[in-house]
C-alpha cells in the first residue's frame, strides 16, 4: 500500500479542550482505512498530546543502536507514547500525527532498536504498533509491512510464551486486510507446524493466546474489495481450523466469557474465508459447517435442550434434531432458568399488557441503538414464553409446559423483574450479550454460505433451516425460531437476511409446490411438503410482523415477505394466503419510518407481479378502500388513505366492484402527488406551496408499484388511463431526475399494455379494450406535455433514453390518427437523437426508428424509409456494440417492412426505392454478419429479406453481382460456423427466405451449390433441433425442380432429409427432444415437396432410397404426417414458412394425390429410358401404397 504524505501542524488548544472520542477497537468489520492529508486537520491547535508525540518521535528517530543508555531511553519513550489514548484525544478527521511515510519510517527504526532479548521492550513495541495502526489508522507501505511481519514472527520464535499474547495482538493488527501481501511469511504462520496453527489449536491451554491467534488468522483471510483473494492453500487451512474450533467443546475450568470470545473470533474467521472469493467445500465440510452454525445460532438461548448433530446431510424430507437422554451441565446455553423464572415471566407479561398503550406513545423501543442487546439482556426469556408469537406453540424441542399464555414475546417484557442481584445480573447480562454476538456471527457466516453456494446444492438443506408444518411433537429449531423468539433485534434481523437470501432466486425450486389437491394418505408428496413450508413461512412471518417493534428489523421482515411472495407459486396453492397479508400491510403504509413505508410498497409490488394476474389479487384490488370487514384487527381509522384526505373529500361509500379504481392505485397516486400531513420528518421534498411531499424513496417505489399494476392488472386500471398519464406528466415536469425517469417508465408501460390489448393474437374483445379515441387523446396530451423537454434533456441521457422508449410504445393505429405535426415531431426528434454522443440515447433512438418502420402509416412512405435506412446504416458503423446490435435489429425490421410492401403495394414501391440504397443496405448487412453474435443474428435476417426483395433488373446489374455473391456466402459461412444457435437458425431461415425470390439464379449461380450443401449438412448433423428444423424448411422452399440443380444435387438433398428423419430422435438433451415432433413434421413435408417437383431423371435415386429399410422408415413417418398424428407446436408454423398449403389431413392427402398424378404423367428421356421407367413405377407404387394406407380407417 502506498503511504500518504502530509505535514504536521502543532495545535494551540489546551489538553482540557481536546474533544473526547470513544476508542476504536480492532475489528475485521471495520471499513478499510482511508488516509486524509494533513490539510484536513484543524490547524491552529497545539495540544500537549501533539507536542509529546512529536517530541518522543523525534527522540526515537535520533536514537542509535550503539547508544549506552539505549534501553533506558527506549523504555521511557515507549512508556510516554503508550500513556495516551490517541483515539480519545484526536479529532475524528485526524489520521496521524506525522505523515504516513514518516510514521512508517519510525516503526521500522524502532523495530531495529529493540532487540528480541529485551522482552519487556518487545511487549511495549508491540503495544505501540497496535496503538498506531489501530487507533491512528496508519497505512503501511510494503517495506514497513515486511519489516514488522519479520519482527513479530521472529519474536514468536525467540521470546518467551508470556510475551506472545501482545505479539500476536500486534501481528493481528499488521496483517489486517493484508493477507495477500504477506505471502512470504504465510508458510511460517499457516504452514505445517506454523505458529498460528499451534496457538489456535483446540489443545492450546491458554485461551487468550488461542483467541488472538484466531483473530490473526481471520485478519489474514479478510479480503478488502478490489483486493486479490488469499491463496486457496492457506485459506483452506484456516477454514479447517475455524471449523474445528466451532466444533470443539469448551475446555474445563475455562471462563465462559473467554470461551465466547474464542468462538466469536472463529466465526469471524469463517466468515472471512467464505466471503474472500469463490469457495468449494470438500467432502463433508459443508454439512459440518452448517451443523456448527445451526448450533451456534441458538447459543445461549434459554430453554433449548437439544443434542445437536455434528454434520447436516442434504435430505428431501425435513430433518429434525433428536432429544437427548441427558444434557451436559457445562454448556451455558443448555442450563435451565431458575425455578421462579416462569412466575417472573408471567408477571412481566402482565405488566407489559398493562403498559402497552403508554409505551406506544414513547419512542424508546423504536429507536434502540447499536448496543440494544445490553438492554434486552437484563431479562431471561425462555423460548417457551411468548407463545403468542407462535400461535400458542413453542419452538423449543424439550421445553417444559408453559405456565400460561402470553400475548407478547419474552424479549419485549420489562427488565425490572430480573431475578438476579446487581453483581450477578451484570455478569449474566454480559454473558448474554456475548452469546447474542455469537448468534449474530453464526448467522453472518450462514449468510455467506447461502450467497456462495449453488442454489441446487442449498435446496438439500432447506429442511434444516426452514420448517414445514409438523404434525404433532415439538416444532423444529429453525430460522423461524430465531425470527420469532430471539431477544436481540440484531440477531432477528440477521436471521431474516439469511431467510431472504435463501428465498431469493428459489422460484424454480418452489415451483414444484402444490396443495390444491388432497394429499395421498399412503405418503406425503414432496410438492405437498413444499406447499406446507410456504404456508408455514407465511404464518411465521405474519406473526413476526405483528410483534416486531424495532424499525430496522420490521423492515427486514417485510423485505423477507416480499422475497417469499416473489418466488412462491400461488397459482398452484390453495387461495387464501395472500388476502390476510394484503390487508395486514395496510396500516404500515403510514408508518413513521420511511424505510418501513418503502418496504411495504416493495411487498405490494411483489404481490401484484407474482404470476399476474392472480384471481385472489384481482379480488383484493376490486375491494373498496374502507372494506375491512374480513378481519377483526382493523378499525375504520386504519383506512389506507384516511391520513391523507384532501380538503372537502371523504371516504366514498362502498362502490360497485368495477366502478372505482383499485385502492392500491389510489394510494400510489396519493403518495406521489399529495403532500404529507405528518411533517414530523424532514425527508419530504418541498413543493411550490411549501408543503412537503413524501420522501423520494417512497415516491419512487409508489411509481414502481403503479407500473406493476399497469402491467399485470391493466383491466382494472385502464379506467384511470388519463389520470395515470397526468401523474406521469407531473413527474416528468419535476426537477429530480429519478422521479422524471420513473414517470417516463410508467408512460412506456402504459403504451406497452395498450399495444398488447390491440394485438390480434391476444383476442381481447373490443369492449374490453381502451377505446381508440381515448388512446389518441392520451398520447396527444402526453406528446404536448413535458415529454418533449425530457427528449431534449441532454444533461440527463438516461431520461432521454427512457423518453425514446416511451415514443416507441405508441399504438400504431393511434399514431396514424395523431395530428401530422405531432407525427413529424416524433420522427424528427428520433432522427436527431441518433446523432447523440451518448450511446444509450443513440441506441434507444435507433430502436424506436426500428419500431416506427413497421407502422402501416409510415412503412409505405418511401422518404421515411430512405431516411430511416440511412440513419441505420450510419449506426451500423458505430463504435458501441450496443448501438450496432440495435441498428442490426432495426435493419431487420426495415427489411421486413420492404417484404410487406412488396406483397401489398407491389412493383411500384420497389421501383421507387433507390437501387443504390438497396446496394448499401446489402453491403452493410454483409459486413454486420461478421460482427458479434448479437449483431450477426439480425444482420443475417436482413440479408435474407434483401435477397428476397431484389428484382430481376437489379440482380442482372454488374454492380450487384459481387455483393450478391458475398451476401449468400456470408449466410453459408454463418450456417456452418460455431456461432450461437440463434444466429445459425436465423441464417438457415434467411437462406430459405432468399430461395423464395424466383429471380435468383439458383440453377446456375456458382454459389447455389454451397448454399444447398450447407443446409444439407446441418439438417442431418447439427445437435440443435431448431437449426435442423429451419434448414429442413429452407430446403422445401424452392418452387420448381430447376432450383435444385442437377440430379446429383437433388439426390444429395433427398438423402440428407431422409437421414435427418431417421435420426430425428437421436439426442441426449431433453430440451432438444421436445422439438423432435416438429422436426419430423417439417422433414416429412420437405420430402413430400421434393417428390412433388421431382423429374424422371431423379427416379433412380428415389428408388434406391425408398426400396429398402430406409423406405419403410420414411413411409412410417409420412403416414403419421398425412394423418396429422405427429405435429409439434412449431410444426404448422414451419410448414407454413416452407410454403406448404396442406394444413388439414384432407388437404395433405389431396396434395399427395396430385403428386401421384404428376409422376404417372412423367416421360423418361431417351437415354436411360428403361431404368427411369422402372424406377418411376416403383416410386408410384410406393406412393399408391402410402395413399391407400392413409385412406384406411
From TrEMBL:
* Location of the DUF4042 domain: 437-617
Cross-referenced Gene3D superfamilies: Leucine-rich Repeat Variant
Source domain of life is Eukaryota
Q: Where is the composition biased (Basic and acidic residues)?
A: 387-398
Basic residues bias (residue ranges): 349-359
Annotated stretches, region: Disordered: 323-426, 625-660, 1127-1149
Q: Which InterPro entries does the entry link to?
A: ARM-like, ARM-type_fold, DUF4042, HEAT6
The name this protein goes by in its record? HEAT repeat-containing protein 6
The organism named in the record is Cyclopterus lumpus (Lumpsucker)
List the biased-composition ranges (Polar residues).
Answer: 625-642
Amino acid at each position: 500500500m502506498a503511504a500518504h504524505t502530509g505535514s504536521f501542524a502543532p495545535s494551540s488548544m489546551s489538553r482540557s479542550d481536546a474533544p473526547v472520542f470513544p476508542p476504536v477497537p480492532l475489528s475485521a468489520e471495520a471499513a478499510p482505512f482511508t488516509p486524509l492529508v494533513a490539510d484536513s486537520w484543524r490547524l491552529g491547535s497545539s495540544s500537549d498530546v501533539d507536542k509529546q508525540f512529536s517530541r518522543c518521535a523525534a527522540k526515537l528517530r535520533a536514537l542509535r543502536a550503539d547508544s549506552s543508555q539505549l534501553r533506558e531511553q527506549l523504555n521511557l519513550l515507549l512508556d510516554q507514547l503508550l500513556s495516551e489514548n490517541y483515539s480519545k484525544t484526536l479529532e475524528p478527521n485526524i489520521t496521524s500525527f506525522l505523515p504516513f511515510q514518516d510514521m512508517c519510517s519510525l516503526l521500522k527504526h524502532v523495530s531495529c532498536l529493540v532487540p528480541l532479548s529485551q522482552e519487556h521492550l518487545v511487549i511495549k513495541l508491540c503495544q505501540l504498533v497496535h496503538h498506531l495502526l489501530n487507533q491512528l489508522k496508519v497505512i503501511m507501505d510494503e517495506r514497513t509491512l515486511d519489516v514488522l511481519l519479520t519482527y513479530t514472527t521472529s519474536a514468536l520464535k525467540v521470546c518467551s510464551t508470556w510475551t506472545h499474547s501482545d505479539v500476536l495482538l500486534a501481528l493481528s493488527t499488521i496483517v489486517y486486510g493484508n493477507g495477500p501481501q504477506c505471502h512470504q511469511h504465510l508458510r511460517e504462520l499457516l504452514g505445517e507446524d506454523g505458529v498460528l496453527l499451534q496457538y489456535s489449536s483446540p489443545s492450546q491451554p491458554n485461551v487468550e493466546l488461542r483467541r488472538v491467534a484466531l483473530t490473526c488468522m481471520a485478519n489474514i483471510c479478510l479480503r478488502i474489495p478490489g483486493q486479490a483473494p488469499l491463496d486457496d492453500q492457506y485459506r483452506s487451512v484456516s477454514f479447517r481450523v475455524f471449523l474445528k474450533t466451532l466444533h470443539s467443546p469448551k475446555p474445563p475450568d475455562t471462563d465462559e466469557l473467554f470461551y465466547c470470545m474464542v468462538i466469536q473470533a472463529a466465526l469471524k474467521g469463517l466468515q472471512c474465508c467464505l466471503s474472500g472469493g469463490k469457495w468449494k467445500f470438500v467432502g463433508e465440510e459443508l454439512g459440518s459447517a452448517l451443523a456448527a452454525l445451526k448450533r451456534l445460532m441458538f447459543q445461549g438461548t434459554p430453554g433449548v435442550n437439544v443434542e445437536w448433530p455434528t454434520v447436516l446431510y442434504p435430505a428431501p424430507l425435513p430433518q429434525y434434531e433428536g432429544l437427548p437422554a441427558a444434557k451436559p451441565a457445562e454448556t451455558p446455553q443448555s442450563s435451565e432458568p431458575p425455578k421462579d423464572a416462569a412466575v417472573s415471566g408471567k408477571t412481566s407479561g402482565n405488566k407489559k399488557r398493562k403498559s402497552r398503550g403508554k409505551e406506544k406513545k414513547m419512542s424508546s423501543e423504536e429507536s434502540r441503538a447499536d448496543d440494544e442487546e445490553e438492554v434486552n439482556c437484563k431479562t431471561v426469556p425462555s423460548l417457551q414464553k411468548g407463545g403468542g408469537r407462535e400461535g400458542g406453540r413453542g419452538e423449543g424441542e424439550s421445553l417444559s409446559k408453559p405456565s400460561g399464555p402470553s400475548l407478547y414475546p419474552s424479549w419485549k417484557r420489562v427488565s425490572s423483574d430480573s431475578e438476579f442481584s446487581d453483581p450477578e445480573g451484570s455478569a449474566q447480562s454480559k454473558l448474554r450479550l456475548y452469546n447474542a454476538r455469537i448468534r449474530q456471527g453464526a448467522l453472518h457466516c450462514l449468510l455467506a454460505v447461502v450467497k456462495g453456494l449453488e442454489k441446487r446444492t442449498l435446496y438439500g438443506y432447506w429442511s434444516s433451516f426452514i420448517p414445514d408444518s409438523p404434525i404433532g411433537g415439538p416444532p423444529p429449531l429453525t430460522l423461524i425460531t430465531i425470527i420469532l423468539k430471539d431477544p436481540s433485534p440484531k440477531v432477528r434481523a440477521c436471521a431474516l437476511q439469511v431467510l431472504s437470501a435463501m428465498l431469493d432466486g428459489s422460484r424454480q425450486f418452489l415451483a414444484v409446490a402444490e396443495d390444491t389437491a388432497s394429499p395421498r394418505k399412503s405418503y406425503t408428496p414432496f410438492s405437498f411438503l413444499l406447499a406446507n413450508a410456504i404456508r408455514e413461512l407465511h404464518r411465521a412471518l405474519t406473526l413476526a410482523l405483528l410483534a416486531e417493534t424495532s424499525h430496522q428489523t420490521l423492515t427486514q421482515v417485510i423485505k423477507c415477505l416480499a422475497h417469499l411472495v416473489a418466488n412462491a407459486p400461488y397459482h398452484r396453492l390453495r387461495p387464501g394466503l395472500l388476502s390476510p397479508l394484503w390487508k395486514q400491510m395496510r396500516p404500515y403504509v403510514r408508518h413513521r419510518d420511511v424505510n418501513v413505508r418503502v418496504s411495504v410498497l416493495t411487498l405490494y409490488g411483489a404481490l401484484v407481479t407474482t404470476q399476474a394476474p392472480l384471481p385472489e389479487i384481482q379480488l383484493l384490488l376490486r375491494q373498496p378502500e374502507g372494506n375491512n370487514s374480513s378481519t377483526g384487527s382493523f378499525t375504520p381509522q386504519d383506512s389506507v388513505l384516511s391520513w391523507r384526505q384532501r380538503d372537502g373529500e371523504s371516504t366514498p361509500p362502498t362502490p360497485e366492484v368495477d366502478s372505482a379504481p383499485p385502492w392500491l392505485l389510489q394510494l400510489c397516486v396519493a403518495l406521489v402527488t399529495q403532500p404529507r400531513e405528518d411533517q414530523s420528518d424532514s425527508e419530504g421534498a418541498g413543493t411550490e406551496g411549501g408543503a412537503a411531499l413524501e420522501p423520494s424513496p417512497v415516491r419512487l417505489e409508489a411509481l414502481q408499484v403503479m407500473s406493476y399494476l399497469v402491467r399485470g392488472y391493466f383491466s382494472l386500471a385502464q379506467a384511470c388511463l388519463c389520470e395515470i398519464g397526468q401523474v406521469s406528466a407531473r413527474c416528468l415536469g419535476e426537477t429530480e431526475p429519478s422521479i422524471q425517469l420513473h414517470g417516463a417508465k410508467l408512460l412506456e408501460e402504459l403504451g406497452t399494455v395498450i399495444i398488447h390489448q390491440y394485438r390480434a393474437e391476444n383476442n381481447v374483445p373490443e369492449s374490453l379494450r381502451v377505446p381508440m379515441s381515448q388512446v389518441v387523446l392520451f398520447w396527444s396530451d402526453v406528446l404536448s406535455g413535458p415529454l418533449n423537454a425530457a427528449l431534449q434533456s441532454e444533461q440527463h441521457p438516461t431520461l432521454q433514453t427512457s423518453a425514446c422508449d416511451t415514443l416507441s410504445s405508441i399504438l400504431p393505429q393511434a399514431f396514424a390518427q395523431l395530428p401530422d405535426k405531432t407525427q413529424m415531431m416524433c420522427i424528427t426528434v428520433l432522427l436527431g437523437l441518433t446523432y447523440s454522443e451518448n450511446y444509450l440515447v443513440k441506441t434507444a433512438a435507433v430502436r424506436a426508428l426500428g419500431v416506427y418502420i413497421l407502422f402501416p402509416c409510415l412503412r409505405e412512405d418511401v422518404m421515411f424509409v430512405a431516411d430511416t435506412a440511412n440513419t441505420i446504416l450510419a449506426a451500423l458503423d458505430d463504435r458501441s456494440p450496443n448501438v450496432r446490435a440495435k441498428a442490426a435489429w432495426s435493419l431487420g425490421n426495415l427489411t421486413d417492412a420492404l417484404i410487406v410492401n412488396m406483397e401489398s403495394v407491389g412493383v411500384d414501391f420497389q421501383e421507387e426505392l433507390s437501387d443504390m440504397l438497396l446496394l448499401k443496405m446489402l453491403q452493410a448487412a454483409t459486413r454486420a454478419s461478421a460482427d458479434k453474435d448479437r449483431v450477426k443474428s439480425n444482420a443475417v435476417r436482413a440479408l435474407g429479406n434483401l435477397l428476397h426483395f431484389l428484382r430481376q433488373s437489379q440482380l442482372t446489374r454488374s454492380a450487384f453481382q459481387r455483393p450478391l455473391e458475398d451476401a449468400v456466402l456470408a449466410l453459408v459461412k454463418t450456417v456452418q460456423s460455431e456461432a450461437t444457435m440463434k444466429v445459425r437458425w436465423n441464417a438457415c431461415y434467411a437462406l430459405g427466405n432468399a430461395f423464395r425470390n424466383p429471380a435468383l439464379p439458383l440453377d446456375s449461380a456458382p454459389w447455389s451449390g454451397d448454399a444447398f450443401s450447407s443446409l444439407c449438412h446441418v439438417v442431418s448433423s447439427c445437435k440443435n433441433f431448431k437449426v435442423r428444423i429451419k434448414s429442413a424448411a429452407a430446403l422445401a422452399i424452392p418452387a420448381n425442380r430447376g432450383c435444385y440443380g442437377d440430379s446429383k444435387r437433388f439426390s444429395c438433398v433427398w438423402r440428407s432429409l431422409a437421414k435427418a428423419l431417421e435420426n430425428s430422435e437421436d439426442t441426449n438433451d431433453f430440451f432438444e427432444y421436445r422439438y423432435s415432433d416438429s422436426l419430423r413434421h417439417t422433414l416429412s413435408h420437405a420430402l413430400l415437396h421434393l417428390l412433388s417437383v421431382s423429374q424422371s431423371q431423379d427416379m433412380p435415386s428415389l428408388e434406391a432410397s425408398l426400396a429398402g429399410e430406409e423406405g419403410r422408415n420414411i413411409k412410417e413417418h409420412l403416414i403419421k404426417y398425412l394423418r396429422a398424428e405427429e405435429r409439434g407446436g412449431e410444426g404448422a408454423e414451419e410448414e407454413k414458412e416452407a410454403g406448404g398449403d396442406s394444413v388439414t389431413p384432407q388437404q395433405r392427402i389431396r396434395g399427395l394425390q396430385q403428386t401421384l398424378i404428376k409422376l404417372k404423367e412423367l416421360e423418361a428421356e431417351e437415354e436411360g429410358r428403361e431404368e427411369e421407367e422402372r424406377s418411376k413405377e416403383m416410386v408410384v407404387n410406393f406412393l399408391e401404397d402410402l395413399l391407400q394406407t392413409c385412406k384406411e380407417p
